[in-house]
Design brief:
Layout (H helix, E strand, L loop, with lengths): L1 E2 L4 E4 L14 E6 L5 E4 L3 E4 L3 E6 L5 E9 L6 E8 L11 H6 L1 H4 L1 E2 L3 E10 L2 E9 L8 E5 L14 E11 L2 E7 L14 H5 L3 E6 L12 E8 L16 E10 L1
């Protein structure tokens, strides 16, 4: 679904999805159970996660966004995603039960590369994590940092509700992924610090060498945001439901 005149396309969202006023300022995605971005060893891509993507008509340079969500289920995740070479076919909006039954049928043969990075709730901990698929052997997973825990049980800071700013950057043929933990109590003078000081806040997550190698950049790169709740939901009764993961995105920049 094309989103106004913004050049973005909303993928795997419901028919009642409300278009945001300004995508670059703020928008949200709702991820139902059984939604994912994953590549299996048999070179099959599962791309059932809701996404907001922009197809680039120029070589990719950089993308940044701040993501936050109230994570609850194992492997809940949200962040930036980039596809290079080919965009898997979007799935048709379905109920959680129908989506699970048709996941095998909705998988497509992998023909391109993709990378995703952001916040992921895994084994009771919140991670700054990434996953990359550049071959037919499947996708990897990497945790670069565990997010800090509350100081006390009465601390208003929530373990499962945090914000993270993610950056994708092209350096020659490689993709560099970095992250920054936003702080909202900075003084006004912080906004006037030089570029070297501001840059030191970023921590490099990983480098994917050759990610853009062999890919015609113009028209073959899609970049944007995603939200995913991969939990395998199998309701035993028709009235059983699981809430959707609501992920919020702010200050999106794509160059």
């Amino acid at each position: 679904m094309d989103v106004g005149l913004s050049g973005f396309t909303a993928v795997n969202v419901g028919s009642n999805y409300e278009e945001p006023e300004d995508l670059h300022e703020y928008f949200s995605l709702q991820a139902p159970p059984n939604s994912n971005i994953q590549r299996k060893p048999a070179a099959l891509d599962d791309t059932t996660a809701p996404m907001m993507l922009k197809r680039l008509n120029h070589s990719f340079l950089l993308a940044e966004v701040t993501v936050s969500a109230d994570f609850a289920m194992d492997h809940d995740q949200a962040g930036l995603v980039i596809f290079a070479g080919a965009l898997p076919s979007p799935s048709i909006a379905q109920s959680p039960v129908a989506r699970r039954r048709s996941r095998v049928g909705s998988e497509t043969l992998a023909t391109g590369k993709w990378a995703k990075a952001g916040l992921e709730f895994a084994r009771g901990e919140l991670h700054a994590a990434s996953s990359v698929a550049i071959s037919t052997c499947g996708a990897d997973w990497c945790s670069s940092a565990r997010m800090p825990s509350p100081l006390t049980t009465f601390d208003p800071f929530s373990l499962t509700s945090q914000s993270l700013r993610i950056r994708f950057e092209r350096v020659e043929e490689s993709l560099w992924i970095s992250y920054e933990i936003p702080t909202y109590n900075q003084s006004q003078s912080d906004y006037y610090q030089d570029a070297e000081v501001l840059g030191s806040r970023w921590k490099q997550m990983r480098e994917i060498m050759g990610f853009f190698g062999g890919v015609e950049q113009k028209g073959n790169t899609w970049v944007g945001c995603y939200a995913s709740r991969p939990m395998d939901f199998q309701p035993s009764n028709s009235w059983e439901e699981v809430d959707e993961l609501i992920a919020e995105f702010e200050d999106l920049d794509i160059l």
